[in-house]
Amino acid sequence: MIKFNAKELRNEDPNDEVVKSVVRNPIYIILDNVLDTYNIGSIFRLADAVAAEKLILCAESETPPNPRIKKASINTWKWTPWEYRETALQAVTNLKSQDETLKIICVEQDRRSIGLSGLECGFPLALVVGNETYGISKEVLKEADIIVELPMYGINKSLNVMVSCGIVLYKILEKNCKNPP
Predict the structure, then answer these.
(1) Domains of the chain as residue ranges with CATH
(2) Nearest to residue 47, comparing CAs of 74, 71, 65?
């Protein structure tokens, strides 16, 4: 296993040409009012790790440059394409208008949820994760093609939004990539 120090993890500033040269998976990650800047920064890092097409920050989610996002993302916010939308519903509607084949997958505890083991989906997709307290907005859940829920075997009833996002994304990559991580 290779270990990196803090300086090695924080790559220099990329130029537009280098960022555009990254081969990306047709994955959009939508943050529906995620408030914790460390979660946002960590999801930037995750978006880079899975080579997501774009991260879309919505509602009250902070946007870069923000010192906490910078720290948690280890500067991957500079490498990951991102945009801001006033609502997650706007983000979903915009993406669906660009590509009708795109599937909207929400990670949420809901009466319509399927278990992670039953998740079957291909690319392109948008994965929506929600507010740390209130979850994904009802309007976005209505637009979902799939609502997936992670099994909880202990006493706690939920996982951190970044952790949930990472588990679902890697499950999707495992099923859809020729050379999964």
Answers:
(1) 17-176 (3.40.1280.10)
(2) 74
Q: What is the pLDDT of residues 41-86, one digit of tens each?
A: 999 999 999 999 999 999 999 999 999 999 999 888 998 999 999 9
What is the tens place of the pLDDT at every residue in 84-103? 999 999 999 999 999 999 99
Q: Rounded to a whole number, what is the largest CA-CA distance in the chain? A: 48
Neighbours of 157 (CB within 10 A): 7
The position carrying tokens 């519903």 is 89
Rounded Cα gap, residues 41 and 36, in angstroms:
9
pTM confidence score: 0.91
